[in-house]
Request: fold
Amino acid sequence: MKQAIAVTGLLLLAACGGGGGGGGPIEPEPLPPPNYAGTWTGSYTVSSCTNSGFFADAALCGSVLNTTAAFGFVLAQSNRTVTGTFSLGSLSSPAVSATIANDGSLVLAAPVAQGSFTLTTTWTLQQATAGALTGQTRQVWTAAGQSGDAVLQGPIVSAARVSGVRRNQTLPQLSGTSLQQLVDLTRASQ
Reply:
């Protein structure tokens, strides 16, 4: 009788995944990725700004905090891989490539250069509703040969997928771009 109980116990233990056999939780399959492909235009608000060195001396945050600026994306997508470019006003990024996360979010990052300035820009995007783009941007502004930086952050306030809009063109690099010209270029309509 003891042997029958012992064998029954071992069978139950094996059937329930006991005995140290890696019976951890099963990860759910990721949801199909949202469709980020297309040409998008919209605006974001600079809701946070910190600056130091050259940018603090120029009072950059005082001129950009709580302002709205234009952006655009021209994106292609193959399953979870997204490639394309983005723009800040009339400034265009180089080509970027990123992978859509299992939660559906997308992070695009690239340096946007104009003259001696570089705006290292990161977009964190979501689509809780198909075709409704939300998210935020973080930009770190630096200037060659100057101390300090500026960090601008803010949410997307409007975005729409549009058709028939021409791809953002790359502007010539102006070696003598002033900080005010740079601010104006990031606010320009596409």
Remarks:
- The chain has one domain: 38-165+181-187.
- The beta strands are 38-45, 48-51, 68-78, 81-88, 91-92, 96-99, 106-114, 117-129, 132-143, 150-162.
- The radius of gyration is 25 Å.
- The longest helix spans residues 2-15.
